[in-house]
Amino acid sequence: MTIMHPKHAPIMQFPIHDNCLYIGGISVVRLAQRVGQTPFYAYDRKLITERINLLRQYLPEEIQLHYAMKANPMPAVVQHLVGLVDGIDVASAGEMKIALDTGMPADRISFAGPGKNERELACAIAAGIVISMESEQELERIMLLAEQMGICPKVTVRVNPNFELKSSGMKMAGGAKQFGVDEERVPAMLTRIGQLGLDLEGFHIFCGSQNLKAEAIQEAHEKTLQLGLHLAQNSPVPIRTLNIGGGFGVPYFPGETPLNLAAVGGNLRRLLLKARAELAGTRLVIELGRYIVAEAGIYVCRVLDKKLSRGQVFLITDGGLHHHLAATGNFGQVIRKNYPVTIGNKAEIPETEIASVVGPLCTPLDLLADQIELPKAEIGDLVVVFQSGAYGLTASPTAFLNHPIAPEVLV
Ligand SMILES: *Cc1c(COP(=O)(O)O)cnc(C)c1O
Questions:
Q1: Torsions phi, psi of 26, nearest 5?
Q2: Residues 16-43+295-410, CATH architecture
Q3: What is the DSSP track for 8-74?
Q4: 3-class state of residue 299 by DSSP
Q5: Maximum distance among all Cα pairs of the chain, rounded to whole angstroms
Q6: Contact in structure between 98 and 75 (CB atoms under 8 Å)
Q7: Helices 75-82 & 45-58 angle (0-180, nearest 10)
Q8: Best of 70, 217, 394 for a ligand 1 pocket test (most atoms within 8 Å of beta carbon)
Q9: Which of 102, 89, 154 is nearest to 126 (CA)?
């Protein structure tokens, strides 16, 4: 009996010539020379543009697309996206600075996060950025600061709904959460906003991340719209913006398949048609990070040593957990699974072998691939980790063991 092992969804966005993988029209071998070192991250600007075009094609045209910058805050990437999206979502003063530096108008930048400090709030108020308020106390702090500064702040209420995004890799709403204001407390907060005469921009409802199931996203969209419209009835001012979140996922692991974007877009079109009258004058926003950049990026490291230990092959590389925590299975995964990986300069050679790819760190957690079939590699070859454009370098403990940080290039 043969056991069928689930396979990775095919990676087709990077062409291969003479067994060498290309990104942005450059072979990885040449790119490694150009960068001047390994490891490094490379992001393909054309693929990012194409992904935005795909979203525009399938989502209703009245949907405004925001880039959630924490997925990949590399300034060149954010700058590239500024010409393509309708807004940027930031989650710290550092991200706010990068977003403002791109020239994106401040009223198209929104700032969320459960623990904003006084300095960050003051910067956001001064810049005219839309602050997504995550608690009643935050509302009072913003009012106090705004009074001192003599500036009318732009705010939305982030709502923690009483439902969750099913099948989500990371749930960020429903039940008890540190994010947003529980749905049932929002009417009282709206009364307070009315008393203060605060100019409320709208609502922000983000349920979760990394979802590959269209039906789950469709259900969340329906409930989110319903909730937004229901809360709008209690609002002291007409709602100008309704941010319905995002959470579109990409396939990382064997057996996972891409999200059916056509189904998600078609459903949203039907929902918007039904609620057209109630939504008149409301800017509808979807915020996406991972879906926009993840598949446009690779992480490249070099084989430093090849070791046979009790029958198992280990490719020991100069890259690892300190640059790419997620690929080692240590960024939110419950069970460790392999990211799609190849040997960039031997991509289609016929000789393959089962090997594990590890990093230089003195911990067994530093495992980039666990016993997968790879083109037969030697010392000096380039290991490429796919699906690495989101939650890569900045989601990794770069100071751990004090190896140099990996450069990032946009090609
Ligand atoms: C992280 C985050 C996002 C982006 O999530 P992705 O899964 O990368 O699309 C969007 N909105 C908020 C509020 C977030 O915290």
A1: -120, 140
A2: Beta Barrel (2.40)
A3: PPP--SS-EETTEEEETTEEHHHHHHHHTSSSEEEE-HHHHHHHHHHHHHHS-TTEEEEEEGGG---
A4: strand
A5: 75
A6: yes
A7: 40
A8: 70
A9: 154
- What is the CB < 6 Å shell around ligand 1? 68, 70-71, 89, 112, 206, 209-210, 246-247, 287-291, 390
d(CA 178, CA 200): 22
- What does the pLDDT read at residue 175? 84
Q: What pLDDT does residue 4 have?
A: 72
Q: Please state which CATH number belongs to domain 73-288.
A: 3.20.20.10
- What pLDDT, on the 0 to 100 scale, is given for residue 88? 98
Q: Which residues are registered as beta bridge partners of 17?
A: 20
Domain boundaries, the chain: 16-43+295-410, 73-288
Q: In sequence order, what are the beta bridge partners of 209?
A: 170
For residue 226, CA distances in Å to 124, 222, 272, 273, 287 come to 30, 6, 11, 13, 18
Torsions phi, psi for 154 (to 5 deg): -100, 125
Strand partners, 354: 373
pLDDT of residue 3: 64
Q: Ligand 1 mean position to 288 CA, how many Å?
A: 6
Which parts of the chain register pLDDT below 50?
none
9: helix, strand or coil: coil
- DSSP label at 250? -
State which amino acid sits at residue 65.
L
Phi, psi of 132 (to 5 degrees): -90, 105
Strand, helix or coil for residue 227: helix
The three-state secondary structure class of 162 is: coil
Q: For residues 273-294, b (16+ Cβ closer than 10 Å) or e, as one string?
A: eebeeebeebbbbbbbbbbbbb
- Closest ligand 1 atom number to CA of residue 246: 9
Measured between alpha carbons, how far is 39 from 48 in angstroms, rounded to an integer? 22
Q: Which residues of 114-143 are buried (b: 16+ CB within 10 A; e: fewer)?
A: eebeeebbbbbbebebbbbbbbeebbebbb
The alpha carbon dihedral of 318, 323, 327, 329 has a sign of positive
Distance of alpha carbon 112 from the chain centroid? 14
